[in-house]
TrEMBL record:
CDD domains from the UniProt entry: SRPBCC_1 (cd07818)
Keyword Thylakoid: no
Native organism taxonomy: Bacteria, Pseudomonadati, Bacteroidota, Flavobacteriia, Flavobacteriales
Record-linked SUPFAM superfamilies: Bet v1-like (SSF55961)
Keyword tags: Membrane, Transmembrane, Transmembrane helix
Name used for this protein in its record: SRPBCC family protein
Keyword Transmembrane helix: yes
Protein's organism: Urechidicola vernalis
Length: 174
């Protein structure tokens, strides 16, 4: 009986230690330079329906079901999706628009697991054209935070961001 008690105490202690050292937040971003004027790039990015043209997840599930609520390009517009196991389901809502600076949104994932992240597309004028920074951040809640000890969010999503930004560049520079 004492052995079982020690095992249970050990497991509880291990879970506690892991929860203390686990990452509590994440922030992933990538950038690219697009050879187009700032206003043109920003005015394209503010419309969520256009993301289907360059999103890496649109390629992972070309049959993804999309629904839209509200007026695209305005705060409160929601783009929702239901897709295969590679894209899951969820919705993205425009939460802020700073003209020629940033499109902010909230990502609400429903499947394969529930989570909420803050996403952004930031633009800035540089000599070569327009720099676009695409990123998202959020908090890791227990027990997901423990899983993040063994998973690198930057590696998991960073490649998708790079793929999407390269496709965005090709789309806008046509």
């Amino acid at each position: 009986m004492n052995t079982v008690l020690y095992i249970i105490i050990g497991i509880v202690a291990l879970i506690f230690v892991l929860s203390v050292i686990a990452p509590k937040s994440y922030d992933v971003s990538r950038s690219i330079v697009i050879n187009k004027p700032l206003a043109e790039v920003y005015n394209y990015l503010r419309f969520l329906e256009k993301q289907h043209e360059w999103s890496p997840w649109a390629e992972k599930d070309p049959n993804m079901e999309k629904t839209y609520t509200g007026t695209d390009g305005e705060v409160g517009f929601i783009s929702a999706w239901v897709g295969n196991k590679d894209v899951g389901s969820g919705e993205q809502e425009i939460t802020g628009l700073k003209e020629n600076l940033e499109v902010s949104s909230q990502l609400r994932f429903l499947k394969p697991w529930k989570s909420t992240s803050d996403a952004y597309l930031r633009v800035s004028e540089i000599k070569e054209g327009t720099e676009v920074v695409w990123g998202f951040s959020g908090n890791n809640k227990f027990p997901i935070s423990i899983m993040m000890l063994f998973m690198n969010m930057d590696k998991a999503v960073g490649g998708d961001f790079e793929f999407g930004l390269n496709k965005l560049k090709r789309t806008l520079e046509k």
